[in-house]
Amino acid sequence: MSDFFYRPADGVLADVIPFYEDGEFKLLYLKDWRDKENFGEGTPWFLLGTKDFVNYTEYGEVLPRGGESEQDLYIYTGCILKVGELYHIFYTGNNFHYPAQGKLQQAVMHATSTDLLHWTKLPEDAFYAPADRYEQHDWRDPFVFWNEEAGEYWMLLAARLKEGPSRRRGCVALCASKDLSGWEVREPFWAPSLYTTHECPDLFRMGDWWYLVYSTFSDRTVTHYRMSKSLAGPWLAPENDTFDNRAFYAAKTWTDGERRYAFGWNPTREGEHDEGTWQWGGNLVVHELAQQADGSLTVRMPETVRAAMTRRAEIALREVVGRWEIGGEGEGISGGASATSIRAADAGESSEAAGVCTAAAEAPDSFAAAAAASLPSRCRLSATVTFGADTRGCGVLLRTDAALDRGYMIRLEPGRQRLVFDRWPRKGDVPFEVGLERPVALTPGVACRLDVVIDGTVCEVYVDDTVAMSARLYDHREGGWGLFVSEGSASFETVLLEP
What we know:
Keywords: Glycosidase, Hydrolase. This is beta-fructofuranosidase. Belongs to the glycosyl hydrolase 32 family. The chain has 499 residues and is mostly beta strands. The protein is 2% helix and 53% strand. The chain has two helices and 33 strands. The protein has helices at residues 36-39, 303-307; strands at 12-21, 24-32, 45-50, 56-63, 74-83, 86-94, 106-113, 120-121, 134-147, 152-161, 170-177, 184-190, 199-206, 209-216, 222-228, 249-255, 260-269, 278-291, 297-300, 311-312, 315-321, 324-327, 339-342, 356-372, 378-387, 393-400, 407-413, 418-424, 438-439, 448-455, 458-463, 467-472, 480-498. Strands 20, 21, 22, 23, 24, 25, 26, 27, 28, 29, 30, 31, 32 and 33 form a 14-stranded antiparallel sheet that branches. The protein has a four-stranded antiparallel sheet with strand order 1-2-3-4, with no helix packed on it. The N and C termini lie close together (10 Å).
């Protein structure tokens, strides 16, 4: 069976180190069993293959962790490159026991392979943060690339300076090498005095622009990017400098030669509850990146994922609150308390209208909602939404009960120009799930498209193929779906698709 958001059956997937070759993305990833008693301590690298981000081949463990007395007990993030016929990986060797023994916790380490499956570690190439410039226990997440202009390899690292405000010492360190063995530590690549650290640095060029990608956990837990016409900077922040929200982290990018993708993970929550603490690791999420005319990047669903869900499900929408006009497939408009059933498209049917439901409501000073009884556990809900002036909110309901007393909301808020993830009932004095909201351009009378992809507890939302919002759906595992308008007016054209 296809798996839209991959997760190993016996653990979780954390940071992904992507590579592409021979028509397949080779995704090295950190695996955590979260079961020290049965699997021991530490994190190795596993290898995952995919051609479409829907079907995956698990190749198993390829870079084993070291023992408790070795530097790489925890093999943390790194990078991969191929030189000639030899593959190189540079990775973080992390041992939490070392500082108590007077040893450095983190080191950059090196391994090579001829087949991506069997790796030879080169402990003699390991090196540490220089004590005169950098804090000693933050020296990780190497990213290596060939700098054509300089005629040498450059390595970017997540590091911290020894001086400056304690929460603003994070920087992207720079090292250089001619042979991928010995490395010279140079002045920082970028030290903006903004964050505690810049995790998982990644760099790529698209057209005239260079893009620096990194993740932070000090002001927000999120993946950022900056852009520059030169490797020397300045590294400029676009208006929206993130790919996603709190539920998409440690993203690194790679290309198949035509399209570039960001590979991150949607974290689990402790106890599998909506109010549980966000955890390290979870399910793989892949976004496609697109460059705009001003150089900024937008995010959209990979076309292969969209194409994997094309079977239209039957829709039976009914009024719950307020007055609605509901129709579809060329039917007349129906109002009142009746339900309108929209037939699903038969196999091979060419009619674009089959399985499409239209609905509209006017609720200038109230709330209106229409709902359907069933929402598959794996599906894509696509809705084109057009709202009127001064509308405070509108969107879709997920896994709701018949009375709308529980469930989730994907809400467009035109007045605040944002998309938010909400759940009902909420706990505490909060307006929505803080940390999951996303900025989005919303204009009255101009249609926008919401695509909501659900697979189990993972939920990924895309708006107009430009904005992504990730979430988890734990407390409500079953229920229907619906449409709503809050203090305003909106019309919807909706289709529910399954694999």
